[in-house]
Amino acid sequence: MARPPISRERLVEELAAVSHELWLLQGIRDYGRDPATLPKDVTEHDRERAEHTVRRLEALGVVNWDEPPGR
Fold this sequence. Notes:
Blueprint: H1 8-31, H2 44-59
Helix pairs in contact: 1-2
């Protein structure tokens, strides 16, 4: 298994952004929320979901930041 090409922190932030985008889309589509009333920035809840996702990927052996780069 190779070391991921980005840092763990960067992966968490990228996944948090995706989580927030999906939350916005679902709020608008599924609940008819006005986009202007929804927070535009990533929230701590988004980061929490992302952190849980990264921990699961680590547990499954999908990512391993202890491996040297390029291995």
